[in-house]
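thought: fold this chain, then report.
action: predict
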Amino acid sequence: MKVHDVIQRPLVTEKSTLGREERNEVAFAVDPRASKHDVRRAVEELFSVRVADVRTMRMPRKTRRVGRFIGNRPEWKKAIVRLAEGQTIEFFEGV
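observation:
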């Protein structure tokens, strides 16, 4: 799996922002087929940082209703990456 295909987008939520500030953790939505090793390699190559730990979890499919029609949102995979001491990834600080 290519490194550009592994990471789909960063997750910018209140909880992930607190994790980035307090525990030096960054959250990403990743390809559901990616393993922890793939995520580690992709983050290290794309952002030039050292990764200390990777945790992954599958987010379940959710039912969505629009009017009388019912459908499902797709399931997806989340990765929480803890960076090594002194390492940072800056997403929006350049504004």
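thought: worth noting. The mean pLDDT is 94.
final: tokens above.
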